[in-house]
Amino acid sequence: MLVWKPLYWDMAVKIILPKFWDAAERLCVKRAAEVAELPMRTVQKLIGKVSDEYPKICNAGGGRKPYWISNPEIDEQFLDALRDHTAGDPMDEKIRWTNLRAWEIVEALKDEHGIEVS
After folding, report:
1. Which residues contact 68 (CB under 8 A, 6 or more apart)?
2. Degrees, nearest 5: CA angle 93-78-109
3. What is the phi/psi pair of residue 117, to 5°?
4. For residue 103, is pLDDT > 60?
């Protein structure tokens, strides 16, 4: 019996089919990550597709530190800049408001304490 075989069958089996399979597998992993509400890398680790021998792209603790870590007095300085422009609720001392606009608060922090904010 003669078996029909396309001219480029070897290419299809060696090149196209693995790419199709990889794409289908990535789609399944992506969908599993969405359903489980987990990062894709975590799902890939769970199914054994990613090993821990590869380093992460970013180093832990990298990047700019938050301003309140580099300047822990920022809360007191902010309240000091608003002191003359603040009113509050006489029944509840936790509630306060100010009549300054955002750009005026920025200028007050810069003039009084030398803090540059955006």
Report:
1. 74, 75
2. 145
3. -125, 165
4. yes
